[in-house]
Amino acid sequence: MNSKLIRELQTLVKNEVISLEVADKIEAYYNSKSPNQSNKLLTIFGVIGSLLVGLGIILVLAHNWDNFSKITKTVLAFLPLLVGQIIVGYSLLKKKSKTWLESSGVFLFFAVGSSISLVSQIYNIPGNLSSFLLTWILLCVPLIYLLKSKALFLLILVFATVYSFDVGYNFSGIRKVPWMYLLIIAILLPKYLMLLKDEVVQNYTSLLNWLFPLSFIIVFGAFINSNFLFELILYILLFGLLYNIGLLKKNDKTRLVKNGFLVIGSIGLVITLLLASSKSFWYKNIDVSNLEIKEILIVILLILSTVFVLLKNNFFKNKGYQKLFQSASIIMIFIFIVHYFDVTVALSLINFTILALGIITIKKGVDTINFTLLNYGLLIITALIITRFFDTNMSFVVRGLLFILVGVGFFSTNYLLAKKIKKNA
Amino acid sequence: MLKFYRMKSKKIIFILFLLVAILQLLAPTKMIYDQENTLKKGKALKFLTEPIDPNDPFRGKYIRMNYDINSFKTKDTIWERKQEIYVYLNDSLGFATLKTVSKTKLEIDNNYVKAEVSWYDNYNNKLRFNLPFDRFYMEESKAKPAEDLVRINNRRDSLKTNITFAMVYLNDDKFVLENVFINGVSIKDLVGK
Fold first, then answer.
1. Which residues of chain B neighbour A93 with C-beta distances below 8 Å?
2. Is the same domain home to B36 and B74?
3. Which of A62, A139, A146 sits opposite B16 (nearest CB)?
4. Of all helices (H) and strands (E), which one includes residue A295?
5. How many domains, in total, are found in chain B?
6. What's the 3-state SS for B62-73?
7. A124 and B28: CB-CB below 8 Å?
8. Which of A226, A231, A331, B143 would disulfide-bridge B61, Cβ 3.0–4.6 Å?
């Protein structure tokens, strides 16, 4: 049990806030819970330990020891792999604790990597980084389910993202689509859904709530290959979908900090909409008939899934400030169609959408006495004004006055809200 | 009853794990087998080259080979980047020379290498490509000196009496880069001294 709590209990007893018996009971309650806690800590350290040892082995082998004969090198390639497999097998057979399974799993993961890389070294096998990573990932993916390992889940998600980045954003050569990423995500998804169902409040699950959307937005660009404006619109659709997923009922209980889908979706929406609100992006008209089937399929898929999630969220029955955020990506499609008729109208529609997003966020912040929301809304409006400065010809006096106005707005709204809190209290 | 099921699922999980473990062992074994097979059955050819030294985050230092065989004069201008091509070779006193390049496999007995198109040079009517065996792993302290050694040798040597070549074994579309030599001495031994 942590010492801070014990000290706190002692002061509470001393000041006669609680009785000695209650203090004892509280202490007993936390003591009964604590063994679990220390186990968790042990698991984390075990995982970090095997992570470091595994990486260390890979680095030591990457020295390419010349004086070792081919046979010595071959033995070295298999040794860590066999050791890892034996430990994992032993943990499985003897039904060892989570700590064992997690740490041995992570060690085995790196042993697989070191063995393939050492064989590549011995025979000078060329193969690029991405094909090496893919073999590595695929050889280890089943371990996630067999060992019920959370650490391996994280490792594979990160490695799959790195792999897709390497394939998709190859700046020197031609960009390829990392299709295998979809397969790996499909393998990971059931486990993630299971975690969302059973352990939604756990810190580990919230970490995944951030890593999944982050991985999606990093890899998404590798799947689309079109002109910039269209890619931007596709990204707006993606962020809209992420935001709506963040609003699903399952995430109701989670705090904002733990809801990566919602936060990334919301901030991503604002940034991409701001980019799209600039005049220079709309110069090139997109000829829709030039688009590849892949991009069109992605658009349809994104729209359908957004609509599906919207319906699941009872979009038409609910009332709330989030409604505009939820439908922003769909509105964007409407604006995109409008731009074929009149670019100016489309541009002003985007600007109004962003302005409205800012205003309703501020209103919600004031109504619920939430400083985060209030300042987020103010930031949206400030960002909108700043971006408009670059593509409109306002005189410096007007610009200066606008800035002063926004600054005063920041002060006064925050001050008024603080006052409101005092009044309520 | 419940215990019985638990026992059973434990067994299944263990068997599945054994399968995964076997796959994990098979992957490097298959790699080794392919390479050894090529070394044993393949034809050894020498490729003139010039090395430079880059890095791989997991596999360490290697020297990258710039081969003399890297282009093919052709009037055919329709080539895509990264397109797979068959590079057919002649054996001239143990050294590899270019015979022809083809988009498809040809019915001739010459050794060949599968390579990727870099780009087509319209000005010189030349198809540029890279031979795939372009990595030679070396101990990390030796990769840079090895590159320097070759460069210094080549600079002093205007008559081109110094030759650097890679010994490559070819067997169908499999290949192994076995060693790199400067004037007949292994580059590893030269740098080690």
1. 14
2. no
3. A146
4. helix A293-312
5. 2
6. EEEEEECCCEEE
7. no
8. B143
